[in-house]
Please model this.
Amino acid sequence: MTKKIKSVKLVSDFEYIFKCPICNSSMRVFELKSLICSNNHTFDFARQGYINLLTHSVKTKYGKQLFEARRKLIVEGGFFEPLTQAIAEVIKKQVVLKKGTVFILDTGCGEGSHLTNLCNMVNSDPKTTVTGVGIDLSKEGILVASKSYTNKIWCVADLANTPFKDKQFDVILNILAPSNYAEFNRLLKSDGFVIKVVPQSGYLKELREVLFDQSEKQSYSNVETVDLFNENLHSVNSLRIRYTMNLDNSLIHSLVQMTPLTWTTSEERVKSFSEKNSAEITVDLDVLIGRKKVLPVS
Ligand SMILES: [Zn+2]
Model:
């Protein structure tokens, strides 16, 4: 079976979650090649199995090289493994114990490794069925995801206008990516959770110290991001995940290629960091866990 047909079959099983990003009507898989709405708006499956559901073309700065570097750092370097473990524990405890099937949407999934690793960890319980859906604005990211991982639904989509019906997801992941709380609240089941990962002050500090002079760029505060989360969702818990990873030269290259931090500094500084034989790198993140706010009954 080709990647495309595999993906078409998977989407067919879950076509009821989709809505047309143009007219909001229901969608269905048509002739094993497209997702089509009741007003005939048609979105074709790509050869690699993903669907592009953007209504207009979008150029992002996130290219193929960045996503391949990120995939290498995650898959070969295990760079985010303690983070993924921690999130998997949260999902198992909060969601899986209550129900056998879990729907996870990763918003800003990039090349798909976080979602895939996480689904594998949560799925280790035989009584659980986990379905993963990943969306990203960058076609380059989704392309790498659909080439690498065939058992997920991958869509190029705009977080401001996601192609899904209301209340479809048990978990919405938002890992080091922009949020859209109106959409999160619309897409979440009434007992679902948003799990958002934001950088803490020490995140990649060894890299930032080389790339930037000014102290304000060397340290990072997530206070505004956390406040916005708490305004829009009912905070259930938050965890701080902090560890260091030793990277060899090849993984240092991947880190440098992966992070947008290098976009605002000089080439010499990037080069001096890239030439290191090895480096201890700090990963310091907050995991925010929130539910829908219950509106007071008037
Ligand atoms: Zn339509």
About this structure: The chain has one domain: 3-287.
